[in-house]
Design brief:
Layout: E1 2-5, E2 20-23, E3 29-30, E4 35-36, E5 41-42, E6 46-48, E7 54-56, E8 65-71, E9 77-82, E10 96-100, E11 103-105, E12 107-114, E13 117-122, E14 132-136, E15 152-156, E16 158-160
Parallel strand pairs: 1-2, 8-16
Antiparallel strand pairs: 2-3, 4-5, 6-7, 8-9, 9-13, 10-11, 10-14, 12-13, 14-15
Length: about 160
């Protein structure tokens, strides 16, 4: 738990595991559950608001997948977009897994295509599958502030074929 009495000025990213409680000094207690634009990082989990009211937020401090799209190109491509800017994932394709209709696909490389998205290049196209999923085993993929991507399993892809 991080408890703050008084004023805090952040000039960089802040990572907190647990509760965040800010005592305003005026007798009330507020919970920081807002997005920090400068750090592009969400804060909060459970804290206490005015008069000791428990507040539970949905904010998190680690990056998450916003969307995933399967492209049936010369070789298949899975385009993953995250909820924040990410660090370059070059050489980290083995930390990801893609399945098409339950069949594991070989990922040959990963490339950052925008600040918040990656393309996973597959060795072959699968044609027109009915279900494509992407998974990630926590490893060395980071957001732009060095916060690690957490494991996720079977994120369904939409199709752009």
């Amino acid at each position: 738990m991080l408890t703050v009495n008084g004023t805090v000025r952040l000039t960089g990213p802040l990572s907190v595991n647990g509760n965040v409680v800010v005592n305003s000094g005026g007798g009330g207690t507020d919970t920081s559950d807002a997005t920090m634009a400068a750090g592009d990082l969400a804060l909060g989990e459970t804290g206490y608001g005015a008069a000791g009211t428990k507040i539970t937020g949905t904010a998190r401090i680690w990056p998450e997948v916003a969307s995933a799209i399967y492209w049936d190109d010369a070789a298949g491509i899975v385009d993953i977009t995250f909820d924040r800017n990410m660090a370059d994932p070059a050489g980290k394709h083995a930390e990801f897994a893609v399945e098409a209709d339950g069949t594991p696909m070989t990922i040959t490389s990963v490339e950052q295509t925008a600040l918040d998205s990656f393309w996973l290049f597959l060795s072959t196209s699968f044609g027109s599958p009915t279900l494509v999923t992407v998974s990630y085993t926590k490893g060395t993929v980071l957001d732009s502030h060095d916060i690690p991507l957490q494991s996720f399993v079977d994120q369904e892809c939409t199709f752009d074929v």
